[in-house]
Specification:
35% of the residues lie in helices and 20% in strands. The protein has twelve helices and 15 strands. α4 packs across α12, α6 runs parallel beside α7 and α8 packs parallel to α9. The structure holds adenosine-5'-diphosphate.
Amino acid sequence: MPEVSKEEVLAALTGVNDPERGADVVSLGMISGLAMRDGHVTFAIEIKPEEGARKEPLRRACEQAVDRLPGVLSVTAVLTAHREGPAPGAAPRAATGSTPRAAPSRPEIAGVRTIVAVASGKGGVGKSTVAVNLALGLKRLGLRVGLMDSDIYGPSVPRMMGIEGRPQSPDGKRVEPMVGYGIPTMSIGYLVPRDTPMIWRGPMVQSAIEQLLREVNWGELDVLVIDLPPGTGDAQLTLSQRVPLTGAVIVSTPQDVALLDVRKGIAMFERVNVPVLGIVENMSYFVCPHCSGRTDIFGHGGARATAAELGAPFLGEIPLRLVIRETSDAGTPIVVTAPDSEEAAAFMAIAADVAGRLDRLAEEGAAQAPRIVIQ
Ligand code: ADP
C-alpha cells in the first residue's frame, strides 16, 4: 500500500473544525510536529493552556480523520498547550539552528538518524526523569528510540528503567544494549556495581562515554536520547563537540538560580553549534495529592520567561508530583505505566514537540549534506 503523505494528512485535517473558533484546525495553525513513518502518523494540536481537557473531542476528531486515510496504520495526536516563544526580534539561532554539522570531529553513529541530548545546569532538577520519559514518549509516538546514560557519576537510567544485569558482548567487540520497555539502553551503571565510588579524571570521562556510545549495537534508531551529566563544564562541552548531536533539550526548575544555569547551558550549546530544541520546566508547580489544589512552590513560569528572553523555544511544564517521583524511582516510568494520566500527557506533549523539531532539523541537515555525483 502506498505510504500516506504529509499533504494528504493535512488535507484530511482541514475537514476538522474547531467549533469554538469556527475554522478548521489547519487554517488556524493548530497542527505542529507532523511526522510519519511506515504508516504511523503523529502530530500535536496546539491549544491555549486554559482550554485543557475541553479540547479532547477535537483531538479525537483529528485522529479519526487521519485514521480513515488509506495507508495509515496508527495515528497519535497530542494536545499541547504552549507555543514556541522566541520574542520578536530575538535571535532565533537556538530555536532553528540550521548550522551544518561539523563532520570530521563528530563521526556519525551508524544507523542512528538523530541524537538529542538532555542537559541541565545542575543535578537534581529532574534531567534523568525527563530523559527517560521523553525517550518513552518518543517511542509511543512510533519512533525507534534508544537511551544512552552518559551520567557516569550518577547513572540513573538502570534504576529508572527498571533494568538489571550486565550487557553481553557476543563477539567480544561490540556490546548488546540492555532493553527496557522496548528501548535499547546503555549506562555505566550496568558495568560497575552500584554504590561503587567512581573517580574519573577528565580524559577518562570522555573516553568512557564515547566507548559506551560507540561500541554498542544500537541497531536502526530514529532518535537516540542522551542523558548528559549535570552541569555545563568540560565533560559536557567535549561530549557536545565529539558527538553529532542534532539538538539539545535543557531541563530546569523555575527558580532564578536554576535559570541562571539555563543561560550557561544555552551558551555552551551555542559555542559548539548544537541547536537548543527547547527548555522544559520541571517541578513547575505542585498539585496536592489530597485536595488537588495547586501551589507554585518554586514560583512558576520562570523557564518560559527565560526561554522567551533568550530566543529559545519553550517545550512545556511538568508538575511536581509524588507519582512522578515514585514511578521514576521504582523503574516504572509514568509515560508507560500511567499513559492516560495528566503527567504522562505533559511528557507526551513535549515528546511530540521534540519529534517535530528533530524531524525538521534532520531534513535541513540532509538538504545541506553534499551530494555525491558519479559520472
Ligand atoms: P537529575 O537527573 O537532574 O539529577 P532526577 O531525574 O534524578 O534529576 O530527579 C531527582 C529526583 O527528583 C528523583 O528522585 C526524581 O524521581 C524526582 N523528580 C524528578 N522530577 C520530578 C517531578 N516532576 N515530580 C516529583 N519528583 C520528581
